[in-house]
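queue> holo job accepted (heme C)
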Amino acid sequence: MSENHDYHNQGGLIAFIGSMVFVFCFFFYIVFINKGVTLDENVSDPAPAGAVKFDLASVKEPWLENPEVALAGQKIYKQNCALCHGGNGDLVGGLPNARNLVEGAWKSGGGLINHYKVLQNGMPGTQMASFKQTLQPHERWAVLNYIETITNNKSKDTPEDVAAFAATAD
Ligand code: HEC
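queue> job finished
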């Protein structure tokens, strides 16, 4: 019986080694090769190499016409305002009783300064809430910068008046 002393269940051993190799390869694949699932929503293209990332917070006068500020404002708009005012400010996909920002039939005077006050205080008694806690001042100016690009009833405030107001507004 000594010839059976080193008897191994060779089939079981091969299956065991095979499964370990499989587990290792699978681990290696998941960790190093598989890129994961890409959900194409809300994923912005990586900035081209060498491109300087736009820093909204560093813009001194974000109420002045500026395509980069307006683009940043559009992103903020989509996240915070589109739900009620519609994806493009025209109430399409929004609330029928919100303001159509493209038409711009303003009730609070209109213009950048009055719009900023609306974002500070909201419009009491309506669904238009204050964004003071949600958005930084430069983010609120960027949204208004974007709205200026889509509205037919544009601001008549002079850059000097807006600058003077912005210096005191929180
Ligand atoms: C929960 C819904 C809702 C959200 C979110 C919302 N609004 Fe409004 N907004 C309203 C409604 C409703 C009115 C109209 C209030 C009224 O006069 O009855 C309004 C009015 C306005 C007006 C018109 C002010 C005027 O003088 O007539 C502006 C400008 C405005 N919103 C900008 C914004 C911006 C910018 C955002 C995002 C930062 C935003 N709103 C987010 C519901 C909303």
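queue> Residues 56-168 form a domain with the Cytochrome Bc1 Complex; Chain D, domain 2 fold (CATH 1.10.760.10).
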